[in-house]
């Protein structure tokens, strides 16, 4: 099995730890992976679409941290990314798991949620297996 990981570089101090957790868990499960970095969470859907077109990619996880700023801008980023991520998964009929924390979180809350990337990897692998067993 091969999983794509699309990683936002925005708040990279956090997302770097998230991707390390996901990679460690993929290694533990014996799952291969391909990493694609994008500038921020808003840019994740295009990265996902490119990876979904690769035949040997079975599923994708999106990794990001959408931390609260002074305005509601962070909500626009997350709501659009989440909607597009769901749409792409349905369009390409491959699992795309959400490993993006926020919106509305503080940096401290984001740090406490880095395992969301590992959980996304776990969900994605489970989905690939379930769909392959149909
Ligand atoms: N504020 C956060 C962003 N903002 C950047 C956008 O995601 C995007 O890169 C920009 O609008 C250009 O398209 N990204 C995050 O991942 N997290 C944030 O908290
Ligand atoms: C810089 C950003 O993309 C985001 O954190 C927005 O911050 P703000 O709401 O303070 O403009």
TrEMBL record:
Q: What is the lineage of its organism?
A: Archaea, Methanobacteriati, Thermoplasmatota, Thermoplasmata, Thermoplasmatales
Gene Ontology terms describing biological process: riboflavin biosynthetic process
| Gene Ontology, cellular component aspect | riboflavin synthase complex
Q: Which reaction does it catalyse?
A: (2S)-2-hydroxy-3-oxobutyl phosphate + 5-amino-6-(D-ribitylamino)uracil = 6,7-dimethyl-8-(1-D-ribityl)lumazine + phosphate + 2 H2O + H(+)
What's its job? Catalyzes the formation of 6,7-dimethyl-8-ribityllumazine by condensation of 5-amino-6-(D-ribitylamino)uracil with 3,4-dihydroxy-2-butanone 4-phosphate. This is the penultimate step in the biosynthesis of riboflavin.
Please name the CDD domains in this protein's record: Lumazine_synthase_archaeal (cd09211)
Its family?
Belongs to the DMRL synthase family.
List the HAMAP family.
Lumazine_synth
Protein name, per record:
6,7-dimethyl-8-ribityllumazine synthase
Q: Which residues are catalytic?
A: 73
Give the molecular function GO annotations.
6,7-dimethyl-8-ribityllumazine synthase activity
Q: What pathway, per the record?
A: Cofactor biosynthesis; riboflavin biosynthesis; riboflavin from 2-hydroxy-3-oxobutyl phosphate and 5-amino-6-(D-ribitylamino)uracil: step 1/2
Source species:
Ferroplasma acidarmanus Fer1
Q: State its Enzyme Commission number(s).
A: 2.5.1.78
User: Where, by residue number, does (2S)-2-hydroxy-3-oxobutyl phosphate bind?
Assistant: 70-71, 113
Q: Which UniProt keywords apply?
A: Riboflavin biosynthesis, Transferase
Q: InterPro entries given for it?
A: LS (IPR034964), LS/RS (IPR002180), LS/RS_sf (IPR036467)
- Residues binding 5-amino-6-(D-ribitylamino)uracil are 10, 41-43, 65-67, 98
**Which SUPFAM superfamilies would you find in this protein's record?**
Lumazine synthase
């Amino acid at each position: 099995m091969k999983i794509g990981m699309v990683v936002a570089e925005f708040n990279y101090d956090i997302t770097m730890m998230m991707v390390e957790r996901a990679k460690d868990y993929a290694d533990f499960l014996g799952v291969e992976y391909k990493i694609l970095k994008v500038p921020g969470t808003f840019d994740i859907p295009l990265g996902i679409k490119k990876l979904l077109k690769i035949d040997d990619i079975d599923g994708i996880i999106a990794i990001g941290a959408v931390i609260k700023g002074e305005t509601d801008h962070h909500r626009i980023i997350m709501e659009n990314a989440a909607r597009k991520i769901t749409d792409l998964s349905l369009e390409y009929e491959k699992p795309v798991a959400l490993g993006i924390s926020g919106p509305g979180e503080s940096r401290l809350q984001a740090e406490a949620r880095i395992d969301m990337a590992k959980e996304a990897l776990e969900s994605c692998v489970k989905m690939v297996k379930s769909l392959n067993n149909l």
